[in-house]
Design a protein that fits this description.
The complex is a heterodimer of chains A (338) and B (325). Helix content of chain A is 70%, strand content 0%. Chain A has helices at residues 2-36, 45-70, 74-82, 92-106, 108-120, 122-128, 134-137, 147-155, 171-207, 209-259, 273-277, 284-296, 325-336. Chain A is elongated. Chain B is an all-alpha fold. Chain B is elongated. Classes of the chains: A mainly alpha (338), B mainly alpha (325). Chain A: The chain crosses the membrane at residues 21-37, 49-70, 184-203.
């Protein structure tokens, strides 16, 4: 238990930093994904807007959901939310705290994607190139084109190789303009996000500190209780399995002994440990039967009480006479299940 | 206890160095961000100034706020400032000390951004190229006002078709860069001199107050950390007890329903106790179902039975029983 205690303390004290580490990794992954992504503007009038805004907004949404999926506390939150009330009241403040802290962490990678996209400028250039103010930036002396024709020409701005509107408006001028707007939006977005984060963090101690301490304690408690319960169940399952298998072997050996009309096995004077572990199965035929029986007819999930380890089976010396009929009935029961 | 003592000594000695480390990382991040950032001056008359000054001042504000957010001590200071007085008086000197140390650390990354920007020069060239006096430069002296504005605005863009072969463009660019770098180095010099004077002159004024303030700010920080540690330890013990009580109450319930065979129960340990009465599939299933449908109340005082207590009852649980010191 001491070892478990140390590990739990470590995990608990470091759970925050573990989750922060995952956040940081996701943020770096989103920046890397953006740089690895091969942006390809379609350079057609309506497709540009759809493509540009799609690249700007859809991956952040996916990253946000991924942030929830990777957070192993989501199942804890769902469980706490959906459980019946029972004897323990539900505190909505705790649920809100858990959800808020998860949502805050999940927001980091999408915010990084949007910032990097805006600061790079390709998306906005692609999406809004048809809205460039040609009157102020372009050549006023150029013969007028129809709306549709102008839009088609402007849509090709991001694709320098096929751009044919150099007399209308210089490609570099338009790209610089759009990129300037995009970067300004990007920095404003970064400033807005940091201001929001700052306000959220600094207003909390001013208003709701006591409620916050309560919610934080109980959300940690729920997490630890779940882990400890799983541990305890695992220990129980282990003991259960051990006794079940032991009873199976004992049952096998005594059953075969009685079926073959062997004389009852004499308990040797000194029962060595190895002999005890053999559990009464000492020849090839018996072992093969035991293995076949394990495969064909697993024992029921029901331990009988005089089980706990004496190792000799019930063909021992001091069993009161009322006991043997009970196990034998059990064995008959499990044979008949085949 | 020994283990705790070692951990606390570590925290105490390293709280400052953790903060300094974060500060350094943020400074490096700001330089990296500047080099990665693709500066692209719009080269249009009014946009230049907005863009150049925006790039020079908006990221430092964001970096300053980041520095405040990432610093754990800012939360501690806010809590100390806003807490009700209660039984412990508030010392404003301590709060002021914490505030000033937080601000100093948070200011480093923004200052580095501004200095790197000035030493590089692109921002100032972009922002002030329209504001130079055209008379000083040969290529711009003879044009009309509007044309001069347009041409000067295009100075930062080397590849623009009008500016490609213009020698006066280089002259304007060098002139502005010289001013920018001079400004950058001057600011750096002033800041370093100010820091130097502050370090040297501080012991001459109020050294005793400073030592006290530093001690108590450290104390508040550590007290907060220890409180969180103790709460974690307490919640772990509480959960452990709660689960054991749950298994115990389940076991008693099973005893009522199962056939009672004489049990050779002597010297039972926790594990074997768990196993001895929950020994078949249905009982295990029932236990798991009860765990989901009816979690036990949060009350581990001795006389607990299965009566409906809510969470508020946990306050009657005496904390002193479980400090384990």
């Amino acid at each position: 238990m001491d070892k478990f205690r140390m590990i739990f303390q470590f995990l608990q004290s470091n759970q925050e930093s573990f989750m922060n580490g995952i956040c940081g990794i996701m943020a770096l992954a989103s920046a890397q994904m953006y740089s690895a992504f091969d942006f390809n503007c379609p350079c057609l009038p309506h497709y540009n807007l759809a493509y540009g805004l799609g690249i700007l907004l859809v991956p952040p949404f996916i990253l946000f959901l991924l942030g929830f999926v990777l957070n192993n506390n989501v199942s804890m939150l769902a469980e706490e939310w959906r459980r019946p009330q029972g004897q323990r009241g539900k505190d909505p403040a705790v649920l809100r705290y858990m959800f808020c802290s998860m949502a805050q962490r999940a927001m980091i990678a999408p915010a990084v994607w949007v910032s990097v996209t805006l600061l790079d400028g390709k998306c906005i250039t692609c999406a809004f190139c048809t809205s460039v103010p040609v009157e102020t930036l372009g050549n006023t002396s150029h013969p007028g084109l129809s709306q549709g024709e102008m839009k088609r020409v402007l849509a090709r701005i991001p694709c320098k190789e096929i751009y044919n509107g150099q007399e209308l408006i210089a490609n570099e001028v338009a790209v610089r303009y759009l990129r300037c707007i995009s970067q300004a939006l990007g920095w404003c977005f970064v400033l807005l996000m940091t201001t929001l984060a700052f306000l959220v963090r600094s207003l909390r101690p001013c208003f709701t500190q006591a409620a916050f301490l309560k919610s934080r304690y109980w959300s940690h408690y729920i997490d630890i209780e779940r882990k400890l319960f799983d541990e305890t169940c695992a220990e129980h399952a282990r003991s259960f399995a051990k006794v079940c298998i032991q009873q199976f072997f004992e049952g096998m050996s005594t059953d075969l002994a009685s079926a073959h009309c062997h004389p009852p096995r004499k308990a040797p004077a000194d029962v060595g440990e190895a002999a005890e572990k053999l559990l009464g199965i000492t020849d090839q035929g018996t072992m093969n039967t035991a293995l076949k029986s394990w495969h064909r007819c697993k024992p029921p999930l029901h331990l009988h009480p005089p089980a706990l380890p004496s190792g000799n089976g019930w063909a021992g010396e001091e069993q009161p006479p009322t006991h043997p009929p009970v196990p034998r009935r059990e064995m008959a029961a499990y044979y008949s299940r085949v | 206890m020994d283990r705790f003592r070692m951990i606390f000594q570590y925290f105490q000695s390293n709280s400052e160095s953790v903060m300094n480390g974060i500060c350094g990382l943020l400074a490096l991040a700001s330089v990296k961000m500047y080099t990665c950032f693709d500066f692209s001056c719009p080269c249009l008359p009014w946009y230049n100034m907005a863009y150049g000054l925006g790039i020079m001042f908006v990221p430092p504000i964001a970096l300053f706020l980041c520095g405040l957010i990432l610093n754990r001590q800012s939360l501690v200071m806010l809590e100390e400032w806003r807490r009700p007085q209660g039984c412990r008086k508030k010392d404003l000197a301590v709060i002021r000390y914490m505030c000033s140390s937080i601000m100093q650390r948070a200011m480093i990354a923004p200052v580095i951004w501004i200095i790197v920007t000035l030493l590089d020069g692109k921002c100032l060239i972009c922002a002030f190229s329209s504001s130079v006096d055209p008379e000083k430069f040969v290529g711009f002296a003879n044009a009309s006002l509007v044309q001069v504005q347009q041409l000067l605005a295009k100075v930062p863009c080397k590849d623009d078709e009008l500016m490609r072969n213009n020698t006066s463009r280089k002259a304007v660019s060098k002139y502005l860069r010289c001013w920018s770098q001079a400004l950058g180095w001057s600011i750096l010099l002033i800041l370093i001199v100010a820091a130097f004077l502050a370090c040297w002159l501080r012991p001459c004024f109020n050294q005793a107050t400073l030592l006290q303030a530093r001690h108590w700010s450290n104390y508040i920080d550590i007290e907060q950390k220890i409180f969180e540690e103790t709460c974690c330890e307490h919640s772990r013990l509480f959960a452990h007890k709660c689960i054991l009580h749950f298994f115990e109450s389940m076991r008693q319930e099973m005893k009522l329903h199962s056939f009672s065979l004489p049990r050779e129960g002597e010297g039972a340990e926790g594990e074997e106790n768990l196993l001895r009465d929950i020994t078949n599939k249905d009982q295990v299933n029932k236990l798991l179902k009860m765990w989901y449908y009816e979690k036990p109340p949060l009350n581990v005082s001795q006389a607990t039975q299965r009566h409906p207590l809510g969470r508020d009852q946990c306050t009657q649980y005496k904390f002193s029983q479980h400090t384990g010191v």
